[in-house]
């Protein structure tokens, strides 16, 4: 009897613990779990964050973290990304748009352009736009709405614009908003929509383009300045890629103690559509593309490459 007790105890220890659940309850529980998993799979679609695949619901917060990190060093970051020539690109971008009302008859009616600068929290495009309108076109009425999803970037823009007369004169407003949902902006109320070095970070670029189309007046212009994934010269492209993926994250680590943010920014360029692909997206949103043939079958010069294609300017016009 005494020898049997240890063996029985051993069998008891080895036997798996069981709990009784009725078969109907078990089936109901399994069914509900599967249903929740299917719903979760449908709702939580994936997208890219640089080379990383993440759920769409996470991207906005991760991008926000990147730009909160680089907000105070935004110009330095663009210097690293563009080899220092982003300032010349921005100047050319603004000149090509020629913002401001040019005709005395319209100025007498005190009508200025309404410009919406998306992902423009740093304020550098807004200042250039207002400088050009004021100094070149003698227009003191043109107004810019600086919009950004990131409050840290908007704070940088406020700080920069506070040193100009434009803020005191009421010629600039600020809007914290997602470019994919500009419900705070009335339809057909904007003359010029600009986005510089921002659209590649959007989760749904097609939705942002649809919103751009909605808020623009008929005849209004969509204009985008963005880095391009491939340069026109293969040799220069190889050199630039090596610089981008090797040097820029390292510089970010040394200068800003933030390698990950700079690594993402480099990867985000690589994932952006090519110039023909993005021009097609603009067309699909309803815009007319400069250089498009009358039959609409192809696009010729629907964008302008800068510095052999390190960056490109895209434009679209909302039909009248």
TrEMBL record:
GO BP of this protein: methylation
CDD domains registered for this protein in UniProt: AdoMet_MTases
Record localization: Mitochondrion inner membrane
UniProt keyword Transferase, yes or no: yes
Catalytic activity: a 2-methoxy-6-(all-trans-polyprenyl)benzene-1,4-diol + S-adenosyl-L-methionine = a 5-methoxy-2-methyl-3-(all-trans-polyprenyl)benzene-1,4-diol + S-adenosyl-L-homocysteine + H(+)
Residues given in the record as S-adenosyl-L-methionine binding sites: 122, 148, 178-179
Membrane topology designation: Peripheral membrane protein
Pathway: Cofactor biosynthesis; ubiquinone biosynthesis
Any Pfam family: Ubie_methyltran
Domain of life of the native organism: Eukaryota
Enzyme Commission number: 2.1.1.201
HAMAP family named in the record: MenG_UbiE_methyltr (MF_01813)
Function, in words: Methyltransferase required for the conversion of 2-polyprenyl-6-methoxy-1,4-benzoquinol (DDMQH2) to 2-polyprenyl-3-methyl-6-methoxy-1,4-benzoquinol (DMQH2).
Protein known as: 2-methoxy-6-polyprenyl-1,4-benzoquinol methylase, mitochondrial
Biological source species: Zasmidium cellare ATCC 36951
Origin organism lineage: Eukaryota, Fungi, Dikarya, Ascomycota, Pezizomycotina
